[in-house]
Design brief:
The complex is a heterodimer of chains A (about 150) and B (about 350). Chain A has a domain of about 100 residues. Chain A is built from eight helices and two strands; from the N terminus they run ββαααααααα. Chain A has a two-stranded antiparallel sheet. About 30% of the residues of chain A have low confidence. With about 350 residues, chain B is of the alpha/beta class. Chain B folds into two domains: about 150 residues, Rossmann fold; about 170 residues, Glycogen Phosphorylase B (Rossmann fold, 3-Layer(aba) Sandwich), CATH 3.40.50.2000. Chain B contains 13 helices and 13 strands. In chain B, strands 3-2-1-4-5-6-7 form a seven-stranded parallel β-sheet, with helices on both faces. In chain B, strands 10-9-8-11-12-13 form a six-stranded parallel β-sheet, sandwiched between helices. The chains are: A mainly alpha (about 150), B alpha/beta (about 350). The interface between A and B is large, with 55 and 60 residues.
Amino acid sequence: MSMQAWIEGQRNEGVAQRVEEEAAAFQDAELDAQLGKERVLIDLLNEEDPEQFMAHYMRNLHVRCGLDWNEYKAAPPRSCAQRVMAKVREGLFRLLRPALEWLTFRQSVVNNRLTSLLMDEHKSRLETEARLRAEMHAIRNTLILHDEENR
Amino acid sequence: MRIVQMLAGYAEGDAISEEARLIQRYLIAQGHRCELVAPADTIAPGAADECRICSTFRMTDVDLLIFHYSTHSEATEIYLAANCPKVVRYHNITPGTFFRGIDQTLARQLDRAHAQLAEVVHAAQAVWSVSDYNSSDFGAGLAVPVITVPLFSEGLVTTLTPDPGMLRLLGGGLTNFFFVGRIAPNKNVEILIEAYAWYHRGVDPRSRLVLAGSEWSCPRYFALLQLFAARLNLPNVLFLNYLLNEQLAACYTMASVYVCASRHEGYCLPLVDAMHYGIPVLANHCGGMPQTVGSGGLLLRDASAKEWAGAMHLLAHDAGLRERVLAGQQKRLVELDRSREEELAERIAQVTG
């Protein structure tokens, strides 16, 4: 089915055609192939088994940045986070993005499964989330600056 | 009169909670009593003073109960049992299928809300639906009157001082494409990332895709999106999580185009905010969004990621098209600006006599 466009509240074939022309100009075989490969991630949305999802996710991070789920999963969340952050602060910029992903995922794991552990360690979960979020923001800012410096 | 508004959850930044607050403020100004109630576990910690717990709330001498319905919660049973005039404020129920395999609990809640919709509606004197799209959920022949009453909202005040830190973060002369909303599967954020990959590689690497919204709605989906952006080597896809109003104001201020590829929306308030900030809106032609933008925006249906990227490029850089879209949006804002308070008073009078 071909794309349709609406402007000023009306369907407009002229605008649709312009959008199609712009789209046709995007020719990048490398990106096309990469998107095809990475789209498997989106297929994970249909993965019914949370354990499979987690295994896939952690395998990816392990391969990419050496973070080993088995090494970290037994440790308290705060300790895990600190260890990742320490690596990040060592200036290993290549680790930034995976670390962010890992932290976020770790937070979700914490949220779902380890809440009680976290509550024991900290005054409140909110406090911890706020701190982690602030740290993530700080790293993200650094990442952006680094990226822009590289350009 | 004593009017109670019942919600499935209550939190700052949530459009339904914001609407309930606005209605409450208006009713109190008119000399009525108005209380907000929600289940204990869904009231945000900072909002406990504003919203009471529905399970312990005494539902006596209530002249009108306004039930904001969007998902199943323990509030539904309390609403059904209440013996007073009732109105359903229908905000739409996101189909549970979007969450299956990602958040089974939420998927079940949404399925249950769908299953109970008829019972909920038949217990009311009237249904106020936020869009015609939502009203279409009820079909023909319903005994209860269904009226489309657009969402009450002050929106983001454009005179709000934008957060300086966020302005700096989004500065540097880069073209910013902005989306804000719950980061949940029905929002179709993955196609925005894919479209941005094309734009970034094919048009302008000095650009950003700025995604704001809580990661807690669906952590698994949020993590997956981050991974997707990372694998595509797109460090300029920014995940900003939940933002304060001043931070949001900064995002709108710095945005070149507002983008929303959502596959299911009852109304979509950020589209209106974007129009207020004078940013062209690019959105999916589905759900309540065509009605929300009216004569404004550029809407696409059945567009591929490349086509989204093409439209992003046109709206960011084609001055003629951009002006045309912005003119349509100004016209729509005038339509939305008429007095909503009078409308609310009229609707309440209709059900309370």
